[in-house]
Write a structure and sequence with these properties.
With 263 residues, this protein is mainly alpha-helical. It has a single domain, classed as Cytochrome-c3 Hydrogenase, chain B (Orthogonal Bundle). It is 53% helix and 11% strand. It contains 11 helices and 5 strands; from the N terminus they run H-H-E-E-H-H-H-H-H-H-E-E-E-H-H-H. Strands 3-4-5 form a 3-stranded antiparallel beta sheet. Strands 1-2 form a two-stranded antiparallel ribbon. Strand 3 and strand 4 form a beta hairpin.
């Protein structure tokens, strides 16, 4: 489910980047293809955004053989369509020229600012929760890190394309090797006066959840740290010395969450 979400949003982001420079072929294709990936999520749980899928201890819905076969069929078709749409970007000298050296950020600056997710990996930094703190299936079936080193809009776009391909490979492999057994495990009572920290590599980067409990075992405080908390300063640095007209393109390449920042 996590990788399907990544596929939908990375594909949508590439379309949005194309749209920001007025390159409509890829913008139109990727807008539609994002919907195809969302529909795959809906095929599993009935909701395009995965609502009601995840529960403490597991998931609410399992895949039968028919659904798994349908997912594989649709996924193979969708990635071929994405490949065609994205190849239009890389084959266009006008697009590449517009992406190249726009919103440039050095690796050292990215390290100093603590960038995460695509923004960090596009500066050549090997930083990914799935790799650094593997949990669950990622302990046994790791997704290779996708990095690029130019630190500009092109690099952030290209890393997304690399990750799209890796996510598809991962999902297809999992569909061919679905485990048997229960889909949800019993959850024990919440511990008293404790702290728990969770890290997940979302499609925009590292998401941290931290929860504190009181002496009665109730949740006393809950904090979510969105990737945007780390990456806003990166956008500010990337725009130094740039034309104002480059802001929409650079902003989209970092894909920051305004509501996430406000949290």
């Amino acid at each position: 489910m996590l990788e399907l979400e990544r596929l939908a949003n990375h594909t949508g982001d590439l379309g949005a980047l194309a749209n920001d420079i007025g390159y409509l072929p890829t913008a139109s294709y990727c807008g539609r293809l994002r919907g195809d990936f969302l529909n795959l999520t809906a095929l599993i749980c009935g909701n395009r955004f995965g609502r009601n899928m995840i529960r403490p201890g597991g998931v609410l819905f399992d895949l039968n053989d028919k659904m798994a076969a349908e997912l594989k069929k649709c996924l193979v078709k969708a990635i071929e369509d994405v490949r065609s749409a994205v190849s239009l970007l890389w084959d266009s000298s006008l697009v590449v020229d517009r992406f190249d050296e726009t919103g440039f950020l050095t690796k050292q600056t990215a390290l100093d600012l603590g960038l995460v997710g695509v923004s960090a990996r596009a500066c050549g930094i090997e930083r990914d929760v799935r790799f650094d703190f593997p949990a669950g299936i990622f302990q046994f079936s790791q997704i290779p890190l996708s990095t690029y080193s130019s630190g500009d809009v092109f690099s952030r776009a290209f890393v997304r394309w690399l990750e799209i391909q890796k996510s598809v490979e991962f999902i297809l492999d999992q569909l061919n090797n679905l485990p048997e057994g229960e889909i949800i495990a019993p959850v024990s009572a919440i511990k008293r006066e404790n702290i728990a920290v969770s890290l997940v590599e979302g499609w925009r980067g590292e998401i941290c959840h931290a929860v504190l409990t009181d002496k009665n075992g109730n949740i006393a405080q809950y904090k979510i740290v969105d990737p945007s908390f780390h990456n806003w300063a990166g956008l500010a640095m990337a725009l130094r010395g740039e034309e104002i007209s480059n802001f929409p393109l650079c902003n989209k390449s970092f894909n920051l969450s305004y509501c996430g920042h406000d949290l």
